[in-house]
Amino acid sequence: MRVLDTHCDALMKLQVEKRGVHYGRTPLDFQNADMLDTNLKRLRQGKVGTQFFAIFIEPDIPMEEKWQHALEQLDLFHTEVLDKNPQMKQVRSWADLNTLKEDEIGAVLTLEGADPIGNDLGKLRHLYRAGVLAIGLTWNHANLCADGVHEPRGGGLTLLGKEVVHLNNQHQVLTDVAHSTVRGFWDILELADYPFASHSNARAVCDHPRNLYDDQLQALIEKDGMIHVVFHPEFISDRKETVEISDLLRHIDHICSLGGVRHIGFGSDFDGIDRYVNQLENAAAYQNLINELLKHYPEEQVRGFAGQNFLDHMPK
Description:
Dipeptidase; TIM Barrel; Metal_Hydrolase
């Protein structure tokens, strides 16, 4: 069963290793580098039909260098992911998802945290033109658009952040709530035509700040937004050292109980995590999750989780 995954950090890993060449590191080969959870070989083994690739800049990068880092990751997306691998096809508009062939893998650009644009909306428009189709205003810390989930004051969107959401609406770009504060989440829900959670779980199941409360999940469902469960063990269970696929299913069960069976998808966070669910250690293992889901849900619903739900709810 083909899968659509709305979050990975492969571009950051590619950049870190390329920048480290002068310090003895070897550039990563996207086709088969063991360090990449989402290398091409593993995507094919796991039957991933569409992978979202985040542009993410580490918080310790000086502000004046962040745009250059974003451009480097954008370049690596083309030189390492697309140009060397003809079966990888950039999805530049949502309609492109419906034209992918069986042997092709769609590659969607996203931005995780608006830090690289500073307060320059010209840079944001550059990213739209480059094909970025989903934007999260923050990572965990504050920037000029909003507070992130770990910012102690817990603020919402700034005027700049609200303008970014309005521009996302105009360009049919998804606004991602995955790293938002509670206040920021509600600001986004009020303003965004296309809100979604690219990689978040249910806080009622695992009480972690990165997860969403029931009223947030219900609000996303009511606004026809998607909720893509994340595979980071820290966001799945706060009670177990070893996390199993069955623990992830508890989040899916809970979201379904809130009426979200048609709003669930996957956002693995592969290449951004260093702990893994047992038997779900990289993209090659995706069918282990599918097979476990088929034991508990009808095939039609599992196909929805795997990607059809997203296709049904994406901007038209």
